[in-house]
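HUMAN: Now follow token order:
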Amino acid sequence: METSKDSHTGHSSQPWIEFLDNGLEDPDDAQYPIFKILKQVISVAEPSLAEAAQQIDTCYQETLDPLQKRAEDKGFAGFLNCLYESISRVVILIPYHNPLQDVFIDLIAELRKLPPREAKIWGEDSLVYTREPIFLNVMEDNWNGYFPIIYKNNGPNTPSLETRCAKWVNFSAFIARCIQAGLNDNYVLGTRYPGIDIPKGLEEEHSSIPRRNCFIRVAAQYILLAGPKLCKDELGDGSGEEKRWWTGKWKVWAEKLEQFAQSEDLDTDLRAEAREAHRRMVDLRPDLFRSAEEETKTKYEQHST
């Protein structure tokens, strides 16, 4: 898969490839072997992700300083941080709707199939790739770091708000994919992100149009990409305070998405995403959208059978 250039702007239409290529200019860089594997993974039509996972694991064996391996964490804290940060910096550049993001989800899943190694990371008994604190820490750092803040004074090298919003949407879509794939299941706060970011898009008012559109899109993508998992784990049977909160919000958010789907203030693509997300919410929990008459009829039919 070659890097293509936009004929009008001269910019790469695949900035994730350009980013990796730039990282491969220095073979002595600590990230070089990881970047090389990631580049191979996204440069072929049908990559062997199991083989790529094994190659990443081999990087630890072959490139890490022996002294680091003697530390309490056996050098895994730094290695895993390098790995997950490299993946994060690539997926932030891949558009939220591009299925190439799924390749990285599958790669992480393959890493978790490898025989786990025990290590004490940050004082925590860990199983490398399977249960360790680095994965969620890197996710948390990027979730915070790429949030599209409006700066009072933009410096000459500050990316535009539109660029920062695009990266926020891309990374949010990656988080949603991680949640749906179960990659965040081992972490107590691993699924907290949609509970914060969906209300930001569907309940709060935003004076900035780029930020408003960004937050609506993020909310819609959490529903479209992680809706089944959220419905199963967060709503569940509606018992308990947190599940009742999610169940109560589900219908409120769906109604707001329906409004956005009809809003002339939004562009065609965003209206379509809002419409699709609304439809997904109704399909996942149709019982929440039945009228009282329909609900009574359903219960009567179930009782009769």
Observations:
- Strands lie at 118-121, 124-127.
